[in-house]
Amino acid sequence: MKQLIPDTIAARTLLVLIIGLTVSHVLSVGLYFTDRTSALMFTGGEHIGERIATIKRLVEDASQAERRRIVELADRPKLHVTWDQESAIEDQEDSGWQAGVLRDALVAHLNGGGGLVFRLRHTDERPSEAWQTHLRQDYQGNELGETMMVSLQLPDGSWLNFAAPVESPEPFWSLRFALSMAIMLLAVGVLSALVVRYLTKPLATFARAAQRLGTDVKAPPIPEDGPAEVRQATRAFNEMQERIRRFVEDRTQMLAAISHDLGTPITRLRLRAEFVEDEDQQKKMLADLDDMEKMIFSALSFTRDETAGEPHAMVDLRTLLQRVCDDMADAGHAVRLDIGDDAVPYGCRPAALRRALTNLIDNAVKYGHQARLSLENDLQGVMVRIDDSGPGIPRELQEDAFKPFRRLEASRSRETGGTGLGLTVARTIIRAHGGDITLTNRSEGGLRVDIRLPR
């Protein structure tokens, strides 16, 4: 059932509008047909009552010979008339509303009906044999459907009998109703679609901007247009984005300033270490200073990449991977690339993405002895997989591996060097492209790194 319900606000709003208007239109037309039928019946009763009263006066004042001539001329398909010595209606009273309408009309047109004897009956049965001899050729032998029958007693005891076929109203489910419904749905659907699209377009822009904020905090603000509620939300979003941007820039600049300022005292300490007479202590001090310089250099490099704002460009991801692997192979590392020959165009920040891939492959060959790369490309995105043959990382420590300056001594040799920023920088860059990195231990041994990049 949920699959049949549209997923977007615009589609749901349009569906609710169309269903609501369709139901209201059907009910309105139904009420119109009911009122129209009642009005036609009332009007028809008034007209028939007036004609019956006129014929009754003419016949009542005429002679015996003239009466039959008047009845013959008055007999019509819309109102059949006979003059007989007996009533065509049994001595019973019809209490239906159709008979009531005609009764009121007769009483009104016959001077209040004082002393008048008449009988009414609303029937949908075939007329009597006596009536069929007086019907026109169009109705002989056929069903008449609904009929109003009236019998009026004249002063001499004879009866004027009337039969008025009740015309059936136009059926509710007709071609006219179908055309009316189609025109209404078409007009409402088009106008509603335009209005709903106008109202929901700012929401779509708002959603795209919120998604873009996760990858580009320096993106331009959203135009503040649309309804008041949407403008208010857009204004709040732009203010939030500006605060986040200032926060990130302040922290990045602070880190860059600290890293830069630490360079001078480290240089002084290195010079003073040269005057230490204990050779063993001198080597340890210089080693510590080297580690500090590497950490500061990595921090400076990280902040430079964050503040550089490299523009996006379309590159062949397969060629980019090939160049990184060739550089690693030239440095004497065991790197194998298992990808096809087809180009994989991808929009990215090439230098930043190259650095992220270099860090990940460098970790694989440094701690896992070798690296095997594969590339999968589908409609949803690209996945680069890096496998190594090292000891892997315990599951509970895999998230800690991405923390800045965090070294997992239990699984990574400290003698291989490094500052603990490689995975941090790599994941920051990948997430800036809208993707992510996951770590898993392979069943056959080693660590698997999956880099997912969206389209």
Q: Tell me the structural class.
A: alpha+beta
Largest sheet: 5 strands, mixed
Quick one: how many beta strands? 11
Straight-line N-to-C gap: 31 Å
| SS field, number of helical segments | 10
Q: Could you tell me the strand content as a percent range?
A: 5-15%
Q: What radius of gyration results from the CA coordinates?
A: 48 Å
Morphology: rod-shaped
Instruction: Determine the oligomeric state from the structure.
Output: single chain
Mean pLDDT: 76
Low-pLDDT stretches:
134-142, 410-415
Percent range of helical residues:
40-55%
In the sheet with the most strands, the strands line up as 6-8-9-11-10
The ordered H/E elements are: HHEHEHEEHHHEHEEHEEHEE
Short description, anyone?
By secondary structure, the protein is of the alpha+beta class. Helix content is 53%, strand content 14%.
From the structure above, extract its key features.
455 residues, alpha+beta, Heat Shock Protein 90, five-stranded mixed beta sheet, four-stranded antiparallel beta sheet, 10 helices, 11 strands
Account of the 3D structure:
About 55% of the residues lie in helices and about 15% in strands. The protein is of the alpha+beta class and about 450 residues long. Among the domains are: about 5-165; about 310-455, Histidine kinase-like ATPase, C-terminal domain (Heat Shock Protein 90). It has a 5-stranded mixed sheet. β8 and β9 (about 380-385) form a beta hairpin. α1 (about 10-60) packs antiparallel against α2 (about 65-75) and α1 (about 10-60) packs across α3 (about 95-110). It is rod-shaped, with a radius of gyration of 48 Å. It starts with 8 loop residues before the first helix and ends with a strand.
